[in-house]
Every structure is written in C-alpha cells, then in structure tokens.
From TrEMBL, chain A:
It holds the Pfam family Oxidored_q2. It comes from Thiocapsa marina 5811. InterPro entries: CPA3_antiporter_subunitC, NUOK/Mnh_C1-like. Keywords: Cell membrane, Membrane, Transmembrane, Transmembrane helix, Ubiquinone. Its main location: membrane. The keyword Cell inner membrane does not apply. The chain crosses the membrane at residues 6-23, 32-50, 70-93. This is NADH-ubiquinone oxidoreductase chain 4L. It is found in: Cell membrane. One of its GO terms (cellular component) is plasma membrane. The lineage of its organism: Bacteria, Pseudomonadati, Pseudomonadota, Gammaproteobacteria, Chromatiales.
TrEMBL record, chain B:
This is Na+/H+ antiporter MnhB subunit-related protein. One of its GO terms (cellular component) is plasma membrane. It is found in: Cell membrane. InterPro entries: CPA3_antiporter_subunitB, MnhB, MrpA_C/MbhD. Residues 191-298 form the Na+/H+ antiporter MnhB subunit-related protein domain. Keywords: Cell membrane, Membrane, Transmembrane, Transmembrane helix.
Length: 126, 319
C-alpha cells in the first residue's frame, strides 16, 4: 500500500470522526470544531486525488507534482472554511451573551442560564 | 518498508490520534489545543502529498488564524461547559451514532481503495496551457487564469462573511471597535514579540506574493501571514482594531475584488472573454491582481478574527 492510499484511508477516518463529533457533542463550539475536522478530511481526500493525478508533469522547476486543479480548490476551500468558522463563532458568542445558551436546544425554558461569573467579553480581571 | 512509508504511517497515526483527542477532549479549550497541533501535522501531510501551496495555507490559516479564533471563543464560552456536558446523548445512542459514522468512513475508504486507474487528471491540460500565461507555478495558474472565476467569487465571499460577523453587534455598539480578540495581560515578552516580528512577517508576505507566480506561494498565504502580524500587534495592545464604520478600511476591503472585476470586464473587449487576459499582458495583470487581493484578503481575515464591534468604553476598559 502506498503512502498516498494510506492518507486516503486516514481522510475517510477523519470524516467519520468529525461526523461523530458533530452529532454527539452537545456544545456548539465543539460542533464547529468537529465540522472543521470533517472538512479537513474532505480536503485531504482532494489532496490524495490530486497526488494520484499528478505524475511527473510539473516536477521540473515547481517542486509540485500533483494535479494543480484540486490543489487550487483546496486553497479556496481553506479560506472559505475560515470565513464560515468566523461567522459561526460570532453567532455563537452573541447567542451566549444574550442568554440563549450554547447548545442547539430549541426549548428556551430548558436552555442553561448565563452563569453569574461569565466573563463573556473576555475582559481582564481587575 | 521504505523510510518514506514508515514516516507516512507515523504521521497519519499522529493525525488520527489528535483527531480523536479533538473529538473526545473534556473541555473545548483542550480540544482547541489539539486542533492547532493537528493543523501543524496536517501541514506536514500536505508536504508529503507534494502540495506545498496548500501546506502553507494550512499552516497559516487552518492552524494559526483558526486557532486564535477558537481559543478566544473557548475562553469566553468556558462557563457554559458544565451545562453542555449534562446534555450529552446516552451511551447507547452514542454507540449507534458511532456505528453509523463508521459506516460513512468505511464507504469513503472503499471509494479510496477503488479509485479508477489510471487516475483522471487535468494536469496535462494545465501543463499545456500554462506557458501562455507566463507563470511557472501551476497552482497560481489555475487560481488566477484557468479558474479565475472561482478565485474571484472566493475573494468576494470574505466580504459577506465579514458583514455577517459585524451584523451580530447590538445597535448601540455599532460605532465601537471590534472586541473579540483575546487580550492577554500585558507582558514585556509579548510586547517585544509584537514589535520585532511584524517587519519580518511583512517581508515574508511580500516574498510569498512575489514568488507566487513561479514557486509555491501566493496571495492567500501572504495575506494570512500579514493578517497574523496585524492580529499580533492588536493582541499585544500596541494598536486598537479599526472601527467598522471607518470608510478607509472598508475601501481597502473591496479594492482587491474591484480591481479583479475591472480587469475581468476589460477582458471582454481586449481578450474576447470575461476574466481573460490580453496576450503578453497576462503575467503583469495577474501580479497586479495578486498584490491588490493580498491587501484586501489580509484586512478581511484580520477583521473576521477581530469580531463584531463592541461598546467603546468596553474597549477602553479592557486596555
């Protein structure tokens, strides 16, 4: 088995792990982390396919011997994933600040209240 | 078993064990620590896959900037974690979910094992069409010539994302400055680092844009490095994040995409297609777009990290 196939199998395992975390973790921040893990597994699959499709075409001069199209897509994907994570985190922090809790429970009565010692703004203690 | 294969086995096992750690760690903070380490190991994995451009983006963006974002959020949300833990699904349900996720992973693994031979590839097509652009880095060629529309949309997607982040601010806070960056207690070491590192970071970024045409590198990597330098300066308290109502900063945000669109539209007359470059001018135009986009993307990334505006007095109180 080549290293590339091995990475492909690892990527499949990463997607499975990320999916498990996304469903099982009750906290929304943990879900965001798990979603990033899943995305990273999918990017890795792209990388494996890029490596397989490469050959020695670009070996001279560029230091790269993968198919550049999936590689370019992964770079695009990494930037978009960062932007999506930033939005998700901003929404989550705001939800917590306004007393909506940090889980996806729809029952407002059931949602955990803001703890009195919550230091939501990240301020330094005097 | 060759040395290369052994190192691949060790790498993937490390990555997978960190992924397990991220999934089951007790607190979000521990999971984020694992995530940053995971990102750095992924960088090595990308190098092993001969994708140096991706490796640099992963190191700067996937591990570095995402790490800061998640650390800040984990610190703020820590008081809620006890309540969250009480809501974890029952063990039997977790087992069932685990089985189904294993099934998904096994399906993907089967796809990997039965990928078609010979592998389908666009590499010969890119190699054939690269010389007219005057570029030597095929990834930059794909990003800015062959699939320029993807790159254009992507550099614009950062703007709605930023608008989304800003729009969660309360009305009263709108004129304030972004306040989501962690503010560690002032220390001499941090201040020194924030004064010494940025000049080198700026040099590295300029180098990355400049060589991006021919060698691994390019605007996204450079933008992530620039954004990281600026964020370091803001976290050390040497500079305040800019107010979101500032028109100058907003102009900087859109200048890259605007230039890209302008050159793209000019292509309709000069080269017979939207986003096509006139013969002989491809490389200078691509470098101009890269430079403008680097600035805009760097500002967008740093502002995404800085979060929504908060009340002005809070910013002052935090200093």
């Amino acid at each position: 088995m080549s290293g590339t196939t091995l990475f492909g199998l690892g990527a499949a395992a990463l997607v499975g792990l990320g999916l498990y975390g996304l469903i099982c973790q009750p906290g929304a921040l943990r879900k965001i982390l798990a979603f990033n893990l899943m995305g990273s597994g999918i990017f890795l699959l792209f990388g494996v396919i890029a490596k397989r499709g490469g050959g020695a075409l670009f070996a001279a001069g560029t230091g790269s011997d993968g198919d550049p199209v999936p590689q370019a897509l992964v770079i695009t994907g990494l930037v978009v994933a960062f932007a999506a994570t930033a939005i998700a985190v901003a929404l989550l922090v705001r939800l917590a600040e306004t007393g909506g809790g940090t889980t996806l429970e729809t029952d407002a009565q059931d949602a955990p209240a803001v703890p009195t010692d919550a230091n939501l703004r990240g301020e330094r203690e005097p | 078993m060759s040395v290369g294969l052994i190192s691949d086995v060790v790498l993937i096992l490390l990555v997978l064990s960190l992924a397990v750690w991220i999934t089951i760690a007790r607190t979000a903070y521990r999971a984020v620590v694992g995530f940053v380490a995971y990102g750095l190991l992924m960088t090595l994995l990308w190098v092993r896959l001969a994708a140096l451009d991706v490796a640099m983006t992963e190191a700067a963006l996937g591990s570095g900037l995402t790490g800061i974002l998640l650390f800040a959020a984990a610190a703020r949300l820590a008081p809620f974690e006890a309540a969250e833990r009480a809501r974890a699904p029952a063990p039997a349900l977790r087992l069932l979910i685990g089985l189904l996720c294993t099934l998904v992973a096994a399906g993907l693994a089967a796809v990997v094992l039965w990928l078609p031979e010979p592998a389908p590839t666009l590499a010969p097509l890119v190699a054939e069409h690269l010389p007219p652009t005057g570029l030597r880095n095929p990834v930059t060629g794909v990003l800015l010539a062959h699939r320029a529309i993807d790159t254009l949309l992507e550099s614009m997607v950062l703007l709605p994302a930023l608008i989304g982040v800003w729009s969660v601010a309360a009305d009263a806070d709108w004129s304030g400055r972004p306040g989501s960056l962690p503010r560690p207690p002032a220390s001499d070491a941090l201040t020194l680092l924030a004064r010494i590192l940025p000049p080198f970071g700026v040099l590295v970024a300029i180098h990355l844009v400049w060589i991006g045409a021919d060698e691994p590198g390019g605007k996204f990597q450079a933008a992530a490095v620039l954004a990281a330098m600026w964020v370091l300066v803001m976290m050390a308290g040497l500079q305040q994040p800019p107010a979101v109502v500032s028109r100058g900063w907003r102009g900087l945000l859109v200048v890259g995409a605007s230039l890209f669109i302008a050159i793209g539209i000019a292509g309709i007359w000069l080269a017979d297609a939207f986003l096509a470059y006139p013969k002989g001018l491809a490389k200078p135009l691509i470098i101009a777009i890269e430079v403008a986009l680097t600035g805009s993307v760097a500002v967008a990334l740093a502002l995404l990290l800085s979060g929504p505006p908060t009340r002005a007095h809070r910013c002052e109180a935090g200093r």
